[in-house]
């Protein structure tokens, strides 16, 4: 459960960071904070910010930006 709690705390902090900012015209500015958060979560492969349609707006893996995730 420690792994889940660690991930939960990190993701909550990212959600707060992103939620406090107006989504910029270029949301890839969040790529760096996502990558930094991932460094402390070795059990996760990537973290991404998606829109309501599942399109990746920002990601710790830059090549994922623009892809669509089936929700």
What is the strand and helix layout of this fold?
Layout: H1 2-20, H2 31-39, E1 48-50, E2 56-59
Antiparallel strand pairs: 1-2
Characterization of the model:
- The protein has 71 residues and is α+β, with helices and mostly antiparallel strands.
- The chain has 2 helices and 2 strands, in the order H-H-E-E.
- The chain has a two-stranded antiparallel sheet with strand order 1-2.
- Strand 1 (48-50) and strand 2 form a beta hairpin.
- The longest helix is centred in the N-terminal third of the chain and has 19 residues, at 2-20.
- It is globular.
- The model has no long low-confidence stretch (mean pLDDT 85).
List unreliable stretches of 5+ residues: none
Rg: 12 Å
The 3D shape can be described as: globular
Order of helices and strands: HHEE
Distance between the termini: 26 Å
Largest sheet: 2 strands, antiparallel
Indicate the proportion of strand residues: 5-15%
Structural class based on helices, strands and sheet pairing: alpha+beta
Number of strands: 2
Widest beta sheet: strand line-up? 1-2
């Amino acid at each position: 459960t420690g792994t889940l709690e660690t991930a939960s705390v990190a993701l909550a902090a990212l959600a707060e960071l992103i939620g406090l900012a107006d989504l910029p015209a270029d949301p890839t500015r969040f790529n760096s904070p996502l990558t930094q958060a991932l460094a402390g979560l070795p059990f996760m492969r990537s973290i991404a910010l998606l829109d309501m349609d599942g399109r990746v707006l920002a990601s710790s893996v830059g090549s994922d930006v623009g892809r669509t995730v089936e929700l």
